[in-house]
């Protein structure tokens, strides 16, 4: 598999707090990579460095490099808007805009200058189909996004992220606020999407990581403890701490 | 587990209930005092003024003879003033609020500015009159004109609008900004397409309430020379003018009883206008609360 994201010797500080320590990772394209580890170990922090959402937190400082497709995303030539267009994000809590379903999906394309009604219609339909929401909402696209259930809202947020045509999709515990059935739907969706997108997901749920991901990274206190194929990591971990964690002995 | 506790527990609960009851009564009394005082005031004014609350009041200019006097020029003056003030104070106030909330670095200078604005919101209005007199009437040589008045009043309501708009902007959930940034929006795109639409009902409510305060203000306009006898409608923003509260003040200060009735009628007009504005603010809030 081809590497898409290459993280080298990454250190991140929140003012004085050393949140990521010497992280080096190669994340392959068109696969699902899961970040697991106990609360506060830096999973979200690392995920947010990939679309530079950390830039907005005052006092954040990073060292090391992150290259996507060979380009250093922290170099001066890269503008964050373009980066974030290419690296979409889905958050823990569904966060639709207080707008119609249609306008939620069209928000991104409109930001990037698409005006034609016909083109927008097409994008909205394709994105909703890709997130397997189309059949449920196609007859009332004008309704408020808040009229949807939590699980539907989360799929709407995925559709919204897909609408700007990203290469990478970051999901930060995207199912932790959802019921088991909605969770399953999102997991199935992720499986389907990985043929076209590179997916990096943070999850608290080890079963989820085992079920859906191809690679798994185990973090502890801001460090990568183990990075391996999911099957290998869960059946035959090479580090004692990984074994303790996945067998539920801590975290 | 037993739900029937021993006596001491019961006694304590009975005591707490009694306290509850007493406080309840106390709060009802507090509310009633306020409402009753307001009612008494309203009834008194309506009794005095209802006879003069007639078409003449709206169509006649002020006059030395009470029987012929009206407040046409004052009503029109107040409306013109609103028309100039509303867009000015909206743009300046909301612009400043957006800057302070979204763009300004949270450093000591910003905190100082913030403190100043909050303080300005409480400065007596006459002070704004003095400022307006120096700045607009004399400094910019705008004379005692409608424009001077409107600019002075804009300064007066600006801090109130800024503070309330800041609160409305701050109330927009962070998740909504994140969603926008994560899609590749610039700062301004996020502010204009995600934050402001969510904050707008709150912002507009604040603007309307601030404007309704300005409508009732007298002191700063007396200071910069709103006239008390204006027998024409202002034709340009540089004409002299009068407004409702000044006219009312003028009528009340005359010895002739008939003018007092006129003043009461004028107050009724002013109250209706304030009521309408507050009503608009409530409507606005309800309309948008549904989809926020
Ligand atoms: N904005 C911030 N400012 C300062 N410290 C922060 C900030 N965000 C996170 N941290 C700290 O950095 C560390 C890593 O946080 P992070 O949110 O990445 O953990 P996480 O692995 O995602 O945890 P969880 O599973 O609970 O979401 C934590 O110790 C946290 O307290
Ligand atoms: Mg997290």
From TrEMBL, chain A:
<keyword id="KW-0813">Transport</keyword>
<dbReference type="Pfam" id="PF00005">
    <property type="entry name" value="ABC_tran"/>
</dbReference>
<dbReference type="InterPro" id="IPR003593">
    <property type="entry name" value="AAA+_ATPase"/>
</dbReference>
<dbReference type="InterPro" id="IPR027417">
    <property type="entry name" value="P-loop_NTPase"/>
</dbReference>
<protein>
    <submittedName>
        <fullName>Phosphate import ATP-binding protein PstB 3</fullName>
    </submittedName>
</protein>
<dbReference type="InterPro" id="IPR003439">
    <property type="entry name" value="ABC_transporter-like_ATP-bd"/>
</dbReference>
<dbReference type="GO" id="GO:0005524">
    <property type="term" value="F:ATP binding"/>
</dbReference>
<dbReference type="InterPro" id="IPR017871">
    <property type="entry name" value="ABC_transporter-like_CS"/>
</dbReference>
<keyword id="KW-0547">Nucleotide-binding</keyword>
<dbReference type="InterPro" id="IPR005670">
    <property type="entry name" value="PstB-like"/>
</dbReference>
<keyword id="KW-0067">ATP-binding</keyword>
<feature type="domain" description="ABC transporter">
    <location>
        <begin position="5"/>
        <end position="246"/>
    </location>
</feature>
TrEMBL record, chain B:
<keyword id="KW-0812">Transmembrane</keyword>
<dbReference type="Pfam" id="PF00528">
    <property type="entry name" value="BPD_transp_1"/>
</dbReference>
<protein>
    <recommendedName>
        <fullName>Phosphate transport system permease protein PstA</fullName>
    </recommendedName>
</protein>
<dbReference type="InterPro" id="IPR035906">
    <property type="entry name" value="MetI-like_sf"/>
</dbReference>
<dbReference type="InterPro" id="IPR000515">
    <property type="entry name" value="MetI-like"/>
</dbReference>
<feature type="transmembrane region" description="Helical">
    <location>
        <begin position="195"/>
        <end position="215"/>
    </location>
</feature>
<feature type="transmembrane region" description="Helical">
    <location>
        <begin position="21"/>
        <end position="43"/>
    </location>
</feature>
<feature type="transmembrane region" description="Helical">
    <location>
        <begin position="149"/>
        <end position="169"/>
    </location>
</feature>
<keyword id="KW-1133">Transmembrane helix</keyword>
<feature type="transmembrane region" description="Helical">
    <location>
        <begin position="79"/>
        <end position="100"/>
    </location>
</feature>
<comment type="similarity">
    <text>Belongs to the binding-protein-dependent transport system permease family. CysTW subfamily.</text>
</comment>
<feature type="domain" description="ABC transmembrane type-1">
    <location>
        <begin position="75"/>
        <end position="280"/>
    </location>
</feature>
<feature type="transmembrane region" description="Helical">
    <location>
        <begin position="262"/>
        <end position="284"/>
    </location>
</feature>
<keyword id="KW-0813">Transport</keyword>
<feature type="transmembrane region" description="Helical">
    <location>
        <begin position="112"/>
        <end position="137"/>
    </location>
</feature>
<keyword id="KW-0472">Membrane</keyword>
<keyword id="KW-1003">Cell membrane</keyword>
<dbReference type="InterPro" id="IPR005672">
    <property type="entry name" value="Phosphate_PstA"/>
</dbReference>
């Amino acid at each position: 598999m081809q590497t898409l994201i290459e993280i080298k010797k990454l250190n991140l500080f929140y003012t004085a707090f050393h949140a990521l320590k010497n992280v080096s990772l190669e994340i392959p394209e068109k696969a699902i990579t899961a970040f697991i580890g106990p609360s506060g170990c830096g999973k979200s922090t690392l995920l947010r460095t990939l679309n530079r959402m950390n830039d907005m937190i005052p006092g954040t400082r990073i060292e090391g490099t992150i290259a996507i497709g060979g380009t250093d995303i922290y170099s001066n030539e890269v503008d964050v808007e373009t980066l974030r267009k290419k690296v979409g994000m889905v958050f823990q809590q569904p966060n639709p805009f207080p707008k119609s379903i249609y306008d939620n999906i069209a928000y991104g394309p409109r930001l990037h200058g698409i005006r034609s009604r016909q083109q927008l219609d097409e994008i909205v339909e394709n994105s909703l189909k890709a997130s397997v929401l189309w059949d449920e909402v196609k007859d009332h696209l004008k309704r408020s996004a808040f009229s949807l259930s939590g699980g539907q809202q989360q799929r709407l947020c995925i559709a919204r992220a897909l609408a700007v045509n990203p290469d990478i999709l970051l999901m930060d515990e995207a199912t932790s606020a959802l019921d088991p059935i909605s969770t399953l739907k999102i997991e199935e969706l992720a499986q389907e999407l990985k043929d076209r997108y590179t997916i990096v997901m943070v999850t608290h749920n080890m079963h989820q990581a085992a079920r859906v991901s191809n690679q798994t990274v185990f973090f502890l206190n801001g460090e990568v403890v183990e990075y391996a194929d999911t099957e290998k990591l869960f059946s035959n971990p090479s580090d004692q701490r990984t074994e303790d964690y996945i067998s539920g002995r801590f975290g | 587990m037993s739900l029937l506790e021993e006596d001491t527990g019961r006694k304590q609960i009975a005591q707490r209930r009694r306290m509850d009851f007493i406080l309840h009564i106390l709060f009802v009394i507090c509310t009633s005092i306020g409402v009753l005082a307001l009612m008494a005031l309203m009834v008194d004014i309506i009794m005095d003024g209802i006879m003069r609350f007639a078409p003449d009041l709206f169509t006649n200019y002020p006059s030395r003879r009470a029987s012929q006097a009206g407040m046409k020029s004052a009503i029109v003056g107040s409306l013109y003033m609103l028309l100039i003030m509303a867009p000015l104070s909206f743009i300046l106030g909301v612009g400043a609020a957006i800057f302070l909330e979204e763009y300004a670095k949270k450093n000591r200078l910003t905190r100082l500015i913030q403190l100043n604005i909050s303080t300005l919101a409480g400065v007596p209005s006459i002070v704004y009159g003095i400022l307006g007199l120096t700045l607009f009437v004399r400094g910019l040589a705008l004379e005692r004109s409608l424009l001077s008045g409107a600019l002075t009043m804009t300064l007066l309501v600006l801090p109130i609008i800024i503070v309330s708009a800041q609160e409305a902007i701050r109330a927009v959930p962070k998740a909504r900004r994140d969603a926008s940034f994560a899609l590749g929006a610039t700062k301004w795109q996020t502010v204009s397409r995600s934050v402001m639409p969510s904050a707008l009902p709150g912002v507009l409510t604040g603007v309307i309430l601030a404007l309704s305060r300005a409508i009732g203000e007298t002191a700063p306009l007396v200071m910069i020379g709103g006239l008390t006898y204006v027998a024409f409608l202002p034709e340009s923003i540089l004409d002299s003018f009068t407004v409702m509260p000044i006219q009312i003040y003028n009528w009340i200060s005359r010895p002739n009883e008939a003018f007092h009735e006129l003043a009461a009628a004028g107050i009724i007009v002013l109250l209706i206008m304030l009521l309408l504005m507050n009503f608009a603010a409530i409507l606005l809030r309800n309309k948008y609360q549904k989809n926020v």
